[in-house]
Design brief:
The complex is a heterodimer of chains A (325) and B (257).
Chain A lengths: L2 E5 L11 H12 L3 E7 L3 H6 L6 E7 L9 H15 L3 E5 L2 H13 L4 E5 L1 E5 L2 E8 L4 E7 L5 E5 L16 E4 L10 E7 L13 E5 L9 H11 L2 E4 L1 H5 L20 E5 L5 H7 L4 E6 L6 H4 L2 E4 L2 H17 L1
Parallel strand pairs in A: 1-2, 1-4, 2-3, 3-10, 4-9, 5-9, 12-13, 12-14, 14-15, 15-16
Antiparallel strand pairs in A: 6-7, 7-8
Chain B lengths: L1 E5 L2 E3 L21 E3 L1 H15 L5 E8 L1 H14 L3 E6 L6 H13 L6 E5 L10 H8 L4 E10 L3 E6 L5 E6 L3 E5 L11 H7 L4 E5 L12 E7 L8 E2 L4 H15 L4
Parallel strand pairs in B: 1-4, 1-6, 4-5, 5-11, 6-10, 7-10
Antiparallel strand pairs in B: 2-3, 7-8, 8-9
Helix pairs in contact in B: 2-5, 3-4
Classes of the chains: A alpha/beta (325), B alpha/beta (257).
The complex binds flavin-adenine dinucleotide (FAD).
The site of flavin-adenine dinucleotide has 27 residues of chain A, from helix 6, helix 7 and helix 9.
Chain lengths: 325, 257
């Protein structure tokens, strides 16, 4: 049977695979494929073992602190050798910032292709069928793989359903040799933690995003309050990033992040084409704007014409009571 | 130190995309082509390094249909890059072959201390060529870089998940993928545009670099426009009523809460 290898990321210290990885494992289990996992970093062993219920047969593991931070040279070496050893014909990963950086490099080493930011994945037998948006979502296309090497597919988070773990036996652990930091030509000197402990925008299931309609930086507190009620991550339009109200890491759009949450709430955002480019793949879009003609309403599922300074606090109250039930 | 900057020509963000009748790709007629926005940061960084005495020469490279791609190379030359190199190739060359072509074109120009690219191209959003090029040239790389210091080694600040930043040190030569924030790209001045006309622009084909299009690993096929979405549902009443009905719809109809 043809083999598939799932690159399984987990939040450090959580000992649990990220939702994106479980989405991929749900898909491979459903397709009845021989599934292997690749898990790197402190706690990898525990995470790997937890995957039995997801149909994982074997896991390539390096339970090593050197993988707690992303170093492209170390990761590329470990991942390329695990892929070779696995004999996998398909490699799946979430299209996270880490995977997007890593897999093209690995693909070049193995002289094959890595295709990031895919939004549809189906298996026809063991052959993956993949679609992805192009030109900022103005069209989409199927990916045709032509080489003979393993096909590497990076799926956007929140595109596939997550199933439930079922019985399953033990996962056979295959330990990847400890990495050698000898001869590395790039080193991480320091990490400056972002302000939030929230999920990254690219992984978030719910996003509350604010634009120039918020009038000033301090009013982002209204969005933080709303976001806190439902575990959302806060995003922003470029106008407010350029104004210096919030960091660029929060920008959604063509020159910011491409996101596809289940729910995207756009507050005081007009819906410029470059903003839509980054979020039109969201499942449900809510627009809150005082201008009934704002272009954002053309993309929205639900629209509220009104003053955000009234609507957002009312929504926070409403969400609080709904979600506490 | 010499600097190589790789740039891609992409449709302007406002351009309307139409498909070819056989859905094999986009219809290129009427498209306004521009330099990929992230590559503007890369070009600017190269020029700034030369102006600051850290670099001796900036050469810009681009792969794509020569007839149009040279315009974008001229733009980079007008901004202040010293020389341009075009690899004439079909519209939709895949990242693997693009990276191989760039690697050979760069090697043909000699040694470089720094290779700059944008963090991704906004047309196919694959974010692959930089890392693949780094592998082909056997260089360490860092992408999504919003701050760069050049000394005996490179110090790069890059954005990672959750808005955190990493500070990396890289030995030269290295490849850096530029993010917004790295600098503010200049516009080409009129004298710059005049000067650019006299600057060296070299040309290769895939064949002259020992490559051919059949070596591509992926191709986009079966293009489709997005399905029409149902019309927006507008929620009436005062703020409290609107909030209440939205919460109801999100829970019971859309099932996302
Ligand atoms: C090459 C390029 C790349 C770009 N990339 C991006 C990108 O990645 N992301 C991005 O977002 N933009 C991007 N832009 C910018 C984009 O064109 C818009 O300028 C920007 O998105 C506008 O931000 P905004 O909606 O917050 O502001 P505005 O367009 O000013 O909209 C503010 C909205 O708030 C509403 N409003 C005001 N007060 C209230 C109130 N009290 N209650 C309710 N509503 C209110 C207004 O009706 C208005 O619709 C890019 C532009 C270019 C040229």
């Amino acid at each position: 049977m043809s083999k598939v290898l799932v690159f399984t990321e987990f939040a450090p210290g959580s000992n649990q695979a990220k939702k994106g990885a479980l989405e991929l494992l749900t898909a491979t289990r459903q397709a009845g494929l021989h599934t292997q996992a690749l898990v790197l970093g402190s706690g990898a062993q525990t995470v790997a073992q937890s995957l039995a219920g997801w149909g994982v047969k074997e896991a390539f593991v390096s339970d090593h602190a050197d993988f707690d931070r992303y170093n492209p040279e170390l990761f590329a070496e470990a991942v390329a050798s695990a892929i070779r050893d696995s004999g996998a014909e398909v490699v799946l990963a979430t299209s996270s910032m880490l995977a997007r950086d890593l897999f093209p490099r690995v693909a070049a080493r193995l002289d094959t292709a890595a295709v990031s930011d895919c939004t549809e994945l189906k298996f026809s037998g063991s052959a993956p069928q993949v679609r992805r948006p192009l030109y900022a979502g103005k069209c989409s296309a199927e990916v045709s793989f032509m080489g003979s090497g393993p096909k590497m597919i990076l799926m956007r988070a929140n595109q596939l359903p997550v199933g439930e773990p079922t019985g399953g036996g033990a996962v056979q652990i295959k330990t990847i040799p400890s990495p050698s930091s000898q001869g590395l030509r790039s080193l991480i000197k320091d990490v400056v933690k972002g302000a939030t402990g929230k999920l990254d925008l690219t992984e978030a299931n719910i996003i509350v995003a604010g634009g120039r309609g918020l009038k000033e930086a301090s009013n982002f507190k209204l969005l933080n309050d709303l976001a806190d009620t439902c575990g959302a991550t806060v995003g922003a339009s470029r106008a407010v990033v350029d104004a210096g109200w919030v960091p660029h890491s929060m920008q959604v759009g063509q020159t910011g992040k491409t996101v596809a949450p289940s729910l995207y709430i756009a507050v005081g955002i007009s819906g410029a084409i470059q903003h839509l480019a980054g979020m039109s793949g969201s499942k449900v879009i809510v627009a809150i704007n005082k201008d009934a003609n704002a272009p954002i309403f053309q993309k929205a599922t639900y629209g509220i014409v009104g003053d955000l300074f009234d609507v957002v606090p009312a929504l926070t109250t409403e969400f609080k009571s709904l979600l506490s039930q | 130190m010499r600097v190589a900057v790789c740039i891609k020509q992409v449709p302007d963000t406002e351009t309307k995309i139409k498909l070819k009748p056989d859905a094999s790709g986009i219809d290129p007629t009427g498209i306004k082509w521009v330099m990929n926005p992230y590559d503007e940061f890369a070009v600017e960084e190269g020029i700034k390094l030369r102006e600051g005495g850290k670099a001796t020469q900036v050469i810009v490279f681009s792969v794509g249909p020569k007839a149009r791609v040279v315009e974008t190379l001229r733009t980079a030359l007008a901004m202040g890059a010293d020389e341009g190199v075009v690899v004439d190739a079909a519209e939709d060359l895949d990242p693997s072959l693009t990276a191989k072509a760039l690697a050979k074109a760069i090697q043909a120009e000699g040694e470089f201390g720094l290779v700059l690219t944008g963090k991704l191209a906004i047309d196919d959003n694959l974010a692959s060529v930089g890392q693949m090029l780094a592998e082909a040239l056997q260089l360490p790389h860092a992408t999504v870089v919003s701050k760069l210091e050049v000394g005996d080694s490179l110090t790069a600040e890059r954005e990672v998940e959750g808005g955190s930043k990493e500070i990396l040190s890289l030995q030269k030569p290295a490849l850096i993928g530029a993010n917004k924030g790295l600098n503010t790209p200049r516009y080409a001045s009129l004298p710059g545009i005049m000067k650019a006309k006299k600057k060296v622009l070299k040309e290769h084909s895939l064949a002259s670099l020992g490559l051919d299009a059949s070596q591509a690993k992926v191709k986009h096929v079966a293009f489709a426009l997005p399905a029409d979405k149902p019309p927006v549902k507008m929620l009436d009443g005062d703020a409290a009523a609107q909030a209440k009905s939205l919460a109801g719809f999100l829970r019971n109809e859309a099932k996302v809460l």
